[in-house]
Amino acid sequence: MKRLIAATTALGLIATPALADALVDNVNGMTLDENGRVVRFDGILMSPDGKVTRLLRRGDKRPQKLDWRADMKGRIVIPGMIDGHGHVMDLGFRALSLDLSDTRSLDEAKAKIAAYAAANPDRPWITGGGWNQEQWGLGRFPTAAELDQVTGGRPALLERVDGHASWANSAAIKAAGITAKTASPGGGRIEKAAGGAPAGVFVDAAMDLVKRALPAPSARDRNAAFLKAQAILLGMGVTATADMGTTIDDWMTYRRMADIGNLRMRVMSYSMGIEPAQVIGGSGPTPWLYDDKLRMGGIKLYLDGALGSRGAWLKAPYADAPGNTGLPFLKDDQLLNLMSRGSMDGFQIAVHAIGDRANQQVLDAIDEMAPTYTGDRRWRIEHAQIIAPEDLSRFGRNGVIASVQPVHQTSDRVMAEARLGQERLGGAYAWRTLMANGARLALGSDFPVENPNPFVGWAVAFTRTDAQGQPVGGWRPQEALTREQAWKGFTVDAAYAGFAEGKFGRLAPGLRADFIVVDRDVTQVSPQELRATRVLETWVGGEKVFEAK
């Protein structure tokens, strides 16, 4: 019996028998149990609804009557990878627009922008992102005047790689009505030129001043962006992700896709603030929908910006910008109010906090709220990048989850040293200490800020080195995880962080049959070989949804 899949095969989604008693056999299989111990098997028996009924080992008798059987010819099979923190629609839109993430200088970026503008003459705005002035060695932000030189008078708005700053040209600034008299909003900063005129970069909350002038994407645009993002993720072996900051339009896109059978991966949705959750969930989290593929169970809040734009909120001024401690987004009472509004309806609270002052603020709020909002709350702190040493032990209280993205450490290492100075790095990207203090670590990538390839993040988590193996021995290697701890963070614990451990996250009886076929034994290869892992097939709920060409 075969389920027909709507026309997404062009994006690499493969129709496979489903909803039948089935056996995926002759595999070199490995998964983790709930405690992170490796379990080996050589067959997966599945029920008609796409769940594992039994893991078979060598010598176990195979059922005689099956609706279908797949012979994997001894290939490596592991659970589907889970990204604990990503932005699905942003990934799709970024992939369909101008991508500057590979540029190494301002001149290289300008050349790429000019080529994109020439190749897309009908686009009313030039949009995209991925720029990074640190990667360019610029020592400052780029300017509107520099963008004007290559955009031919059309409005242009390009997001920084971390999504916490935007670079606009003069036409975009004019379209948004921003002048020298426009004040920076709370939680944001307009970079100013001589005389007070906007220089071209808008940080954090100030980004919205320009974004409001952008033409809104159509439903068709959103569908295309989602399908592109899903194809990228499934092709990398990511079968589920937390979507951090789902808007009502995003949710409607997921529902549209699911209604016609095109939602093939699993999305653990966290509302962009309180309002979408109240509209979508009403009195509380939604149920799991579409065979456990979609649920809005949490609310995402923001406390500060990012290190790269000096928006992360620090206890002391930036070492490379005296007098600047970053951008706090919410006062203590505002944060408590928002967390209470979500918690009283049963939503899980996930708070973005990068700087040590922001992390202290959310830990203070959790300590204050925990006696009132009891039970299994699983408070989440997203990123948890820079933590004061005296606050590290507080993560073990109240079941706080540290949702961290290992690749940020390799991307940010040199910048973090400059922003903080050597003496303030004691709580920076302190994964092992967080775990030792009782925090559960959910690992992810923060795509599209970073590449969503989970095997790269896995390798970073236990080596603390980049693609070139630098620095030798790892950066602050005392904070490295073990290989198994890192694997657990991208599977078992990422599912737990989304209240999904009873649905997926490992291969075991009663859980969804989400698995991937890879070209090497990921438990044995070197870190460099792990980074190069190739996904051959991706299966979700017992259906093959991707096959490498």
TrEMBL record:
Domain of life: Bacteria
Keyword match Signal: yes
InterPro entries the UniProt entry points to: Amidohydro_3 (IPR013108), Metal-dep_hydrolase_composite (IPR011059), Metal_Hydrolase (IPR032466), YtcJ-like (IPR033932)
Gene3D superfamilies, A to Z: 3.10.310.70, Metal-dependent hydrolases (3.20.20.140), Urease, subunit C, domain 1 (2.30.40.10)
The keyword Signal is annotated on this UniProt entry: yes
Signal peptide stretch: 1-20
Keywords assigned by UniProt, alphabetized: Signal
Start and end residues of each Amidohydrolase domain: 71-546
Protein name per the record: Amidohydrolase 3 domain-containing protein
